[in-house]
Amino acid sequence: EEYESDDDSYEVLDLTEYARRHHWWNRVFGHSSGPMVEKYSVATQIVMGGVSGWCAGFLFQKVGKLAATAVGGGFLLLQIASHSGYVQVDWKRVEKDVNKAKRQIKKRANKAAPEINNIIEEATEFVKQNIVISSGFVGGFLLGLAS
User: Fold this and answer.
1) N or C: which end of the chain has fewer CB within 10 A?
2) DSSP labels for 52-111?
3) What is the pLDDT of residues 66-97, one digit of tens each?
4) How many other CB atoms are found less than 10 A from the CB of residue 57?
5) Would you give the end-to-end CA distance of the chain in angstroms?
6) What span, in angstroms and rounded, lies between the C-alpha atoms of 60 and 53?
7) What is the pLDDT of residue 59?
8) pTM
9) Do residues 48 and 136 make contact, with C-beta atoms less than 8 angstroms apart?
10) What is the pLDDT of residues 92-103, one digit of tens each?
């Protein structure tokens, strides 16, 4: 086959220049783009989000295991001591105190709802403005939990 002659002209599009002028995230997430979007490349954002997410997930996993071990072990030792006669537990009083604590937590939670909603709105806005680094963080966090 013969190639087309050089007489045919093609328009060359410089996509890097187009991307600088027409930020796709402005159309998707609004005109206020966060600082991370403009400072670093997409690959750098994904790596930064992934590494920080993995560290957070790994620490969350280790601390969670430690807390679960401490609470479970403490409860187990308390049960052993109770059945062996070393400790007498007034379970009615424990139940009463737990119910009292539940009521207090519910009261405080209802008062704190506006602050919590404000934090959720700010976090949502951050995720919208920095979608690439946020998605890298979530992926890294899940990998950190799995490792």
Assistant:
1) N
2) HHHHHHHHHHHHHHHHHHHHHHHHHHHHHHHHHTS----HHHHHHHHHHHHHHHHHHHHH
3) 999 999 999 899 888 888 888 887 889 989 99
4) 21
5) 55
6) 10
7) 93
8) 0.52
9) yes
10) 998 999 999 998
